[in-house]
């Protein structure tokens, strides 16, 4: 129950925004296998929750979440949240919260938004029509946007120097596996961590884990798939390289018919903006809007230079025949300060004060025109308005029944602080000095001089080496290096981070290549010990944590009582999986490609549990085990899954592959094993 309640706590108001009452009179379910829209999944005093009700909620969720919640468990979670919402809303109406002053005040604050929304919908969205000629013209003018880049996989090694590269190549030619040679010689920590196997090279100017080495990329572009021979050693500005191309899926121009949805998605905003700009131009004339460009050129949004606006704060920067369309500099700056940090960044990066003026005028002109034409008449038809009001009623009910019923003492805060003191500390961190080089030769030369000065504790001489040889002499100190696999100021680099933390302060590293492909060495300068925030400093944070915990418990208690009060009865056993096996396989594949392995396995489990036909469940069981082995690297679990697979399915096309995976995971297959190619 606690897991469901926790889910609902965050979901209840979201679901409120998407609630829709079933339009048809529901009928009872005769069999649990029924999949009628009007099947009752829950009933309570004064209403029911039907399959159609749940489906409409799901359809309103962002597309990336829909598949997850269309599973049996997902639909059950949504049913639980919907049931909670319904009883809270019944209680809210019983308490008269629909006319609560706080609710009415919140809705009044949202009024402008709905006027603007209605105006835009009726005068822009509903008016724009994309013709076939429009779509074809956009396609032909933007062919590069609809090109599928190739997908290339290589075995790759970056050697320390030419000598090491030749040694690596010699071992490869003797038949030593690429993974083993990579472990021994590879200076690129990204490729080394992948046993040399670099995937997803798209010939788009950036090689994953290697960077924008155009010379190397051109060599890859001109290579052919060949698993028996190697290209290199070759030298570029980024070092010495050896590689072989293992897989090449050709790029291609997508057909017009295949990208129509994407074209519409890209083209519609452009056409809508074109129409809106025309409408706004006419409205500016209608309301005699004039922007004072002289003042515009003197206004600054920079918080560090705001004082320069002092003399013009009360000057009118936007004038109009309508008072509500007049803006002073002070008003615009106040509106800017109300924006979120992300919105402020959008304004400052997108044109500064001109963008701010355009935003304010756009909203105000549409609002004025909509109000003048009585657009409030459409609010009762506006689903967003209806649901916003419902959400505010639910929010008020939650506050009165749950949040406001909670008390937190100073003693509770003190106890929580002592219990979880470590959570409120800043971990120890180290400061390092890093030198960057163009090539191995320069790095070795500098290292020799730096090491000599280091042994003599000659700080002045070490700084002279940095100034003379490092590519970034002004950027050599990197502070706040935590023991977390990340190099602050550089990026993710597990091996680099380990070198910092597996050695004492004062350690001087050898020359090596970072995960980003930089040739570097570093010295650990100092370690700053862990620090703790005082109880007084974090008391508000602890109070919020305790409040959240108590709200969960209180919500569970209140929900249980409301279920009894309104006779809520749920029938989760009537929920039916509506996705096909093919759809689930597609979702699993998409999740795996995005490295969301938890969701991928969840989709495979849905197939295994709901499509027991010795075909779909057979394939899903194998794919689940393969994913656990190859991507998640959980050897023990993968072995058990493959063995269970062979026991459950003693015969099948994938059994030989499953046995091969077992042998490989148990170390019975040589690392350099490659299946024979068919002639």
Number of strands: 20
Q: What shape does the CA trace take?
A: globular
**Helix-residue proportion:** 40-55%
Radius of gyration: 32 Å
Task: Characterise this structure.
- The protein is an alpha+beta fold.
- Among the domains are: 110-144 and 261-385, no CATH class; 150-250, Chitinase A, domain 3; 428-529, Chitinase A, domain 3 (Roll), CATH 3.10.50; 581-665, Serine Threonine Protein Phosphatase 5, Tetratricopeptide repeat, CATH 1.25.40.
- It is built from 26 helices and 20 strands.
- The strands form seven sheets. The protein has a four-stranded antiparallel sheet with strand order 5-4-7-6.
- Helix 25 runs antiparallel to helix 26.
- The radius of gyration is 32 Å and the shape is globular.
Précis, in short:
The protein has 26 helices and 20 strands. The chain is α+β, with helices and mostly antiparallel strands and about 675 residues long.
Task: Break the fold down into its secondary structure elements and pairings.
Elements: H1 2-16, E1 40-44, E2 47-50, H2 51-60, H3 63-69, H4 72-94, H5 101-125, H6 132-141, E3 147-148, E4 151-159, H7 162-173, H8 178-185, H9 189-193, E5 197-201, H10 214-221, E6 231-236, E7 239-249, E8 252-253, H11 260-286, E9 290-291, H12 293-296, E10 316-319, E11 327-328, H13 329-337, H14 341-349, H15 353-372, H16 383-401, H17 410-419, E12 425-426, E13 429-437, H18 440-455, H19 459-469, E14 477-481, E15 486-487, E16 491-492, H20 494-501, E17 512-513, E18 519-528, E19 531-532, H21 535-565, E20 569-570, H22 581-593, H23 597-610, H24 616-630, H25 635-648, H26 655-665
Antiparallel strand pairs: 1-2, 1-20, 3-8, 4-5, 4-7, 6-7, 9-10, 10-11, 12-19, 13-14, 13-18, 15-16, 17-18
């Amino acid at each position: 129950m606690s897991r469901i309640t926790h889910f609902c706590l965050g979901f209840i108001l979201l679901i409120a925004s998407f609630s829709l009452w079933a339009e048809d009179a529901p009928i009872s379910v005769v069999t649990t296998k029924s999949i009628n829209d009007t099947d009752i999944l829950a009933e309570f005093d004064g209403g029911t929750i039907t399959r159609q009700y749940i489906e409409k909620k799901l359809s309103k969720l962002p597309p990336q979440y829909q598949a997850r919640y269309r599973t049996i468990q997902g639909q059950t979670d949504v049913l639980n949240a919907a049931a909670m919402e319904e009883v809270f809303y019944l209680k809210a109406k019983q308490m008269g919260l629909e006319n609560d002053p706080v609710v009415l005040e919140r809705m009044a604050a949202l009024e402008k938004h709905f006027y603007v929304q209605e105006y835009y919908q009726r005068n822009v969205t509903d008016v724009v029509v994309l013709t076939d000629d429009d779509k074809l013209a956009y396609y032909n003018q933007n062919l590069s946007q609809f090109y599928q880049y190739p997908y290339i996989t290589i075995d790759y090694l970056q050697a320390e120097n030419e000598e090491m590269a030749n040694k690596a190549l010699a071992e490869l030619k003797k038949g030593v596996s690429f993974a083993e040679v990579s472990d021994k010689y590879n200076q690129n920590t990204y490729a080394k961590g992948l046993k040399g196997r670099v995937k997803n090279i798209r010939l788009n100017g950036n090689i994953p884990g290697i960077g924008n080495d155009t010379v190397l990329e051109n060599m890859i572009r001109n290579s052919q798939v060949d698993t028996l021979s190697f290209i290199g050693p070759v030298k570029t500005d980024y070092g010495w390289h050896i590689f072989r191309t293992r897989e090449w899926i050709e790029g291609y121009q997508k057909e017009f018919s295949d990208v129509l949805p994407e074209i519409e998605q890209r083209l519609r905003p452009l056409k809508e903006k074109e129409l809106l700009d025309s409408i706004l131009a006419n409205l500016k004339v209608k309301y005699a809007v004039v922007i004072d460009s002289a003042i515009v050129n003197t206004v600054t949004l920079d918080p560090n230079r705001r004082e320069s606006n002092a003399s013009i704060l009360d000057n009118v920067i936007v004038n109009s025949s309508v008072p509500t369309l007049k803006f002073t500099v002070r008003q615009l700056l106040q509106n800017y300060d109300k924006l979120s940090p992300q919105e402020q960044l959008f304004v400052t990066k997108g044109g500064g004060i001109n963008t701010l003026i355009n935003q304010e005028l756009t909203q105000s002109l549409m609002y004025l025109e909509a109000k003048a034409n009585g657009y409030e008449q459409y609010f009762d038809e506006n689903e967003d308005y209806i649901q916003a009001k419902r959400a505010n009623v639910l929010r008020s009910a939650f506050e009165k029944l749950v949040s406001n019923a909670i008390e937190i003492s100073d003693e509770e805060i003190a106890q929580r602080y002592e219990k979880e003191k470590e959570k409120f500390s800043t971990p120890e961190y180290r400061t390092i000095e890093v030198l960057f080089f163009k090539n191995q030769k320069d790095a070795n030369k500098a290292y020799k001089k730096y090491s000599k000065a280091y042994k003599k504790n000659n700080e002045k001489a070490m700084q002279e080496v940095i100034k003379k040889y490092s590519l970034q002499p002004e950027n050599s100190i990197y502070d706040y290096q935590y023991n977390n696999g990340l190099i602050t100021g550089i990026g993710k680099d597990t091996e680099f981070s380990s070198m910092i933390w597996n050695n004492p302060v004062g350690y001087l590293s050898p020359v090596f290549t970072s995960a980003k492909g930089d040739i570097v060495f570093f010295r650990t300068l100092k370690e700053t010990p862990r620090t703790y925030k005082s109880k007084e400093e974090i008391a508000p944070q602890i109070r919020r944590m305790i409040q959240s915990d108590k709200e969960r418990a209180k919500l569970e208690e209140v929900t249980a009582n409301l279920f009894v009060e309104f006779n809520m009865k749920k029938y989760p056993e009537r929920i039916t999986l509506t996705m096909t096996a093919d759809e689930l396989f597609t979702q699993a594949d998409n999740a795996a490609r995005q490295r969301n392995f938890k969701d991928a396995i969840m989709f495979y489990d849905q197939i295994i549990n709901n499509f027991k036909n010795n075909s779909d469940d057979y394939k899903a069981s194998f794919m689940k085990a393969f994913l656990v082995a190859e991507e998640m690297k959980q050897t023990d679990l993968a072995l058990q899954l493959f063995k269970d697979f062979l026991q459950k399915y003693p015969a099948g096309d994938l059994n030989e592959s499953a046995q091969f995976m077992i042998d490989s995971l148990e170390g019975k297959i040589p690392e350099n094993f490659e299946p024979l190619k068919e002639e």
